[in-house]
Structures are given as structure tokens and as C-alpha cells.
Amino acid sequence: xxxxxxxxxxxxxxxxxxxxxxxxxxxxxxxxxxxxxxxxxxxxxxxxxxxxxxxxxxxxxxxxxxxxxxxxxxxxxxxxxxxxxxxxxxxxxxxxxxxxxxxxxxxxxxxxxxxxxxxxxxxxxxxxxxxxxxxxxxxxxxxxxxxxxxxxxxxxxxxxxxxxxxxxxxxxxxxxxxxxxxxxxxxxxxxxxxxxxxxxxxxxxxxxxxxxxxxxxxxxxxxxxxxxxxxxxxxxxxxxxxxxxxxxxxxxxxxxxxxxxxxxxxxxxxxxxxxxxxxxxxxxxxxxxxxxxxxxxxxxxxxxxxxxxxxxxxxxxxxxxxxxxxxxxxxxxxxxxxxxxxxxxxxxxxxxxxxxxxxxxxxxxxxxxxxxxxx
Length: 375
Known about the structure:
This protein is mainly alpha-helical and 375 residues long. 66% of the residues lie in helices and 2% in strands. Strands 1-4 form a two-stranded antiparallel ribbon. It has a two-stranded antiparallel ribbon with strand order 2-3. Helix 11 crosses helix 12. It is globular and about 65 Å long. Residues 1-16, 18-22 and 367-375 have low confidence and may be disordered.
């Protein structure tokens, strides 16, 4: 029995946009294309030029935002495409960070070998953990990942040979990218690579089967989809992306400490992915970058700092603790007002940039449609 899925299950059959007379597809005017080009250039300036105007420490924050985009995409593969939540994702990221730092500082391996090893270790963790928990899903799977995160925090991150113990592990930047600005562009290149791999994955038959699996595993199984193996495959891909993000994060800080990889960080990873918008790459990257830059925004923008200071708390709400307070509030707002997150809100702009008519109420299909699935 063979399975074919002819088009993405989250995208309905595109319908041509009609012009005013209803006799030809909509095409932007030259002035419309100029407006789109201006907005595209403004976004390119914000990503490629604006960070260069900041001091070195601020550039590291922007680099962290790029790396958080990779981590958000890794969690989106598992949570968005398959519908399984990971509450121990900081373990995959942290072990990837320590692996890369160990390879460079102790084994004297090149940066590229260390990053590849971190990605491979991330995938191996997911393969072992997923293989041991294939029979469980939903809340029980989340509890397994939570337990693994706690085991990593209390045991693996305390192995002195790997982590350096309380002293941590050094993780210098690679040769040729020693400056913060060059390393920022290197991380942008890795983010582009992850986006391309994710896009190619979801354009394949296996990727579209993942979406069918997320919608209804039992229905997908009746059409010959191997539910367990596809879930394991998504978990491994998620682990590879997470290990890569951890390695880049380690070399951005040039130092890795065991105290960073706590359960609080795992919560931030989940919240930023959901607020960004599951199954929307641009939304996930924007949401992840926002949470990474939140301490910077609080320090730089006065009214945000005043709003955070006005939140009642048993102790002073610092910029580092703000994501754990503002994050759940944004999560509740997302679930109530915009289940599609930031991705749902920016969809009209995305389609407008692609040459479609601007429609403020265009937030995508109301439900996931499974079409053209034949056995």
C-alpha cells in the first residue's frame, strides 16, 4: 500500500484573485510594487544594517535573537507539525552547547566540526529518547521530556569533564568570525539554512504526512502513514536543529555555564514558539527574536520599562525575569485573541509583499484541510 499526498494539508487550493472587472487575476500597479520594494528594503535594513550601529554587547543580543529563531524552528517541527510538546528542550540546546564547547576547547577541533558534532548529538538524544517513548503521546510525552530536562539539569550538566563543572566551559568564536558583527552574519547564514531545510522538508511527501499526522493520527494511520516512525523522525529533526542552536549560542557568549539551562528556559522556548505562531516560519522567528530581545527592549524603550515596573511582583522584576512574566500574559492573549500568533497577524503583510491584494482580515484558512490523500 503506498501513500501519496499531493499538496500541503495546511494550504487550501489557491484561488486566483480577481481584478475589479472580475475577468483577470489581480496584479499590483507599478506604484504598488514600489511600495512593496520600500517595505522590503526597510526590513532588510533592520536585519542586516541596524545591528551594526549597536555596541558589541548589543550585537550579541541581536545574534542571540537570530539563534533563538533557530531554536524556535526546532521546537516548531515537534510542536507545530506533529503536535507533541517538549518541556525539556533546554536539555537538547544545552547539551549541544557543551558539546561544541568541549570539542573546540578540550579536543581542539575546528568550529565546523564542533557544530556538526553538536547537531549530531542533538539528533542522537532525540533518537534515543523518542525511541524509548514512542508508545506515548500528548501529556505523557511532555512529562517524559520534562523528566529528561530535569535529569540533564541535575546530572549531565554537572559532569565536569564535559561542562567544566562550576567553572563552565570556554567556547571561542571561529577563526575569521572573531568580531561580533561577523559572527552575527554567520548565524544569519545558519538561520537561512535551517529555514531552507524546514521549507524543503514540508514540501516533501513526508513533510505533508507530518501535517496530516498532527491533524489526526488515527486518520493518517488509515492511509498508511507510519505514525510512530514519523513522530520519531520529527523529533530527531527537532533535536538536530536544537543542537545546532545550542552550539551557536555557546560561541556567541564565548562561555557556557551549567546554571543557564534550567526549566525556566524551556518554558520560554515553548511560549515564544506558540506566541510566534505554530507552522508559520516567519512568525516563529519573529516571536523567538522578540523574547530574545525583550531585555534589550526594556532597557532601550522607556514606556516598556515603566509598564514592566508597574506589574505587581513579590520582588523586583528585572529584564531577565520579564520573559517569564510577560510570556504567559502574551500566551493567554494569543490563545484567546489570535490562536495563530504573530504569524496570523502578519499574514496580510506577507501576502501583500508577495503581490497579492492587501486584505486586513486574511488570517489564513479557518481549519486544517486534509485533501488528496489516497492509499
